[in-house]
Amino acid sequence: MAAGLKTIIVLSFILAIGFLLVILSCALWHEYLPLLVVATYVLAPLPNWICSRCSNPDDFMESAGSAVVDFGRFCTAFLVVMGIGMHTL
């Protein structure tokens, strides 16, 4: 149990350092377009969260809300892949 918590803490620390380095490099070179990568990663979980809230978990048919959830996952994956693509440019 403690190993999983330590892993989450280390991964969040690495993510925070990565965001900090992107922001500092933007400020150093006065080129703020790489902040779009940070914005994309921050906005990426929103479609998944919104679509999971919009689906009705109390429906008697399991597959009725799955299209909405799948669309949210698709949009989230698209934003993550777009962030990776913008980061490589």
UniProtKB/TrEMBL annotation:
Location of this chain's protein in the cell: Membrane
Which family, according to the similarity comment?
Belongs to the OB-RGRP/VPS55 family.
**Residues passing through the membrane, by range:** 7-30, 71-88
Species the sequence originates in: Heterodermia speciosa
Q: Which residues form a coiled coil?
A: none
Which GO biological-process labels does this protein carry? late endosome to vacuole transport via multivesicular body sorting pathway
Per the UniProt entry, the signal peptide is none
One cellular component term (GO) for this entry is:
Vps55/Vps68 complex
UniProtKB keywords? Membrane, Transmembrane, Transmembrane helix
Q: Which InterPro entries match?
A: Vps55/LEPROT
Per its record, how is this protein called by name?
Answer: Vacuolar protein sorting-associated protein 55
Q: How does it sit in the membrane?
A: Multi-pass membrane protein
Keyword field contains Membrane: yes
Q: Its domain of life?
A: Eukaryota
